[in-house]
Write a structure and sequence with these properties.
Elements lengths: L1 E7 L5 H9 L6 H5 L3 H14 L9 E10 H7 L5 E5 L16 H4 L2 H23 L4 H4 L8 E9 H11 L6 H17 L10 H5 L15
Antiparallel strand pairs: 1-2, 2-4, 3-4
Helix pairs in contact: 1-3
The structure holds flavin-adenine dinucleotide.
Flavin-adenine dinucleotide binds next to helix 8.
Length: 220
């Protein structure tokens, strides 16, 4: 899995801070934008504490994600306040076997070997279908959830906070949790005030919405 933050709104924290000031000010937006960063950051901190997070919708982040499974992206695209562009299985011939192996399978040498054999067989069938002239859009029906894919995703900061609450949680599936953890590490570097308390709900609010007492992070 590779995750790269390839773009984000200019002044990712200044604009939301200035937007918050605007709501309580007679001053023009342009004049507020000219204020020192320190001042806009302080206001941003205050509104984040109060949970008035609509102002951070002005800041968007774009991530390039590669080498993840279709299982992962199926979960990812359920997050609706976002934009996606994904490698097509209609227009791209996936003749080389590229798939994700879950760690629980890698740990068992015997099962891992069986898994590899299954994947080899699947790709053999896929390539046979292509050779027979079956279009890629139909041949792909035999491909597994494990198939690797590449996707570009853009989310605003408010949606990202929600995404991290759900997907950094230990109850999230391991692959999307790994992705969410990597995305969080990236955005923390460029927007530390916005993402200061970001993470699973138990860390950001101290409450487990799942009430899963068996979780090592359960607040108790
Ligand atoms: C641990 C876990 C297990 C899951 N298991 C399953 C499962 O078994 N089956 C399954 O189908 N899904 C499952 N999901 C997916 C889940 O149901 C959501 O589809 C997904 O997490 C997207 O979250 P969301 O709908 O809150 O937010 P987003 O789509 O990211 O939207 C953000 C917020 O915007 C608001 N919003 C967005 N669209 C609308 C709308 N149309 N109407 C009103 N408000 C809206 C909501 O407040 C929403 O919380 C699972 C998710 C997790 C984290």
């Amino acid at each position: 899995m590779k995750v790269t933050l390839i773009g984000y709104s200019p002044e990712p924290e200044k604009v939301p801070g200035m937007a918050a000031m605007l709501t309580h000010s007679k001053t023009t937006p342009e004049a507020l934008y000219g204020l020192p960063d320190q001042q806009t950051r302080k206001v941003l901190e205050q509104v984040m504490e109060l949970g008035h997070t609509s102002v951070i919708e002005h800041t968007c982040f774009t991530f390039a994600i590669s080498g993840v499974s279709r299982s992962l992206t199926h979960q990812l695209v359920r997050h609706r306040i976002a934009s996606y562009s994904q490698q097509s299985q209609r227009y791209v011939n996936l003749s080389d076997p590229q798939y994700v192996v879950p760690p629980t399978i890698t740990e068992h040498a015997e099962m891992a070997a069986e898994y590899e054999k299954t994947m080899a067989l699947i790709w053999k069938q896929y390539n046979s279908l292509l050779k027979l002239g079956i279009p890629a859009e139909d041949a792909r029906y035999v491909l597994p959830n494990a198939t690797c894919t590449n996707i570009l995703v853009t989310m605003n900061a408010r949606e990202l906070l929600h995404f991290f609450e759900l997907r950094c949680c230990l109850h999230a599936q391991w692959e999307i949790r790994k992705l969410a953890d990597l995305m969080l590490a990236e955005v923390k570097q460029v927007a530390p005030t916005i993402f200061q308390h970001a993470g699973p709900a138990c860390e950001s609010s101290g409450v487990c919405p799942e009430h899963k007492t068996d979780c090592p992070r359960y607040p108790g």
